[in-house]
Amino acid sequence: MIYITMLIFVKEGKEETFLEFESHAIPLMQKYSGQIIYRIRPSRDSFISAEEELPYEIHFISFESDSHLTNFMNDDSRLKFIHLKNESIKSTILIKGEKM
């Protein structure tokens, strides 16, 4: 099992476009043994300190293996909507790890 933490930074005014992409991508994860454990949209008050821009959302995700993640990322039905992701996301920070 692999675990991924994503900090997602959305372009101002593109929140609806991002949510449209997520409405296609999130249900597809199950096909590849993936799941969102937590999907958090923190408020400014949620941060004790921050040196940089605050993320729009934070995702904690799991996949059974790296190959399941790769297959999800390359799925044709996901790639049909990748333009929505590219239009809406300014940047992401992705941290990959294992449960200890």
UniProtKB/TrEMBL annotation:
It comes from the Bacteria. This is DUF1330 domain-containing protein. It comes from Arcticibacterium luteifluviistationis.
